[in-house]
Amino acid sequence: MIVKTLGRVDYAATVEAMQAFTAERAADTPDELWLCEHPPTYTQGIAGKADHVLDAGGIPVVQTNRGGQVTYHGPGQVVAYPLVDLRRLGCFVKEYVFRIEAAVIQTLDRFGVTGHRVAGAPGIYVRLDEPGSHAALTGPADPLDPFRGLGKVAALGIKVSRHCTYHGVALNVAMDLEPFHGINPCGYAGLETVDLVKLGIHTDWASVAEILGERLAAQLTP
pLDDT band at residue 138, thresholds of 50, 70 and 90? Predict the structure, then answer.
């Protein structure tokens, strides 16, 4: 897998580049992983509902073809776009998503934070009261507040075209979290979004990007 660090790049232009790469790739085209961050941007997935954008506050809202609903991208967030041929990798979409989430969990573990999956809600969550706790999430979720005690630290949304993936995962490192209050993150009203700083971890974008890139490459290389 070829890993490319793009720096801070425009969201829409990056999506266009991913679509072009995917449309033009051949069976022997090496997989790539793009690591970047974006200027402040709200993005709506194909399942997105307009009323989940509560107050854009001047931040552009971009319609896109990834799965999922509305999320926010901004400086201080590591965004990873794996461009992977699933046939060559030998797995289906469900396992591919599992592997991406595993890479995020492994990255968080390097910083003493335990990531959790929540059934039916792609992405990675942490316990707000004890971010390093390894205790499993147990018991049925409260239907009125299924994310009680949890914060979302990574959002995931993908697209598959001709068995090849684009879009990906965003891990919050050191962000201005206020724009998340302008939306129902990933379609969930009241879901708290956190970054590593809020969890008490002070590190830099490049360090997290390097580890996440390493873990994604390990998970997604045949």
Answer: low
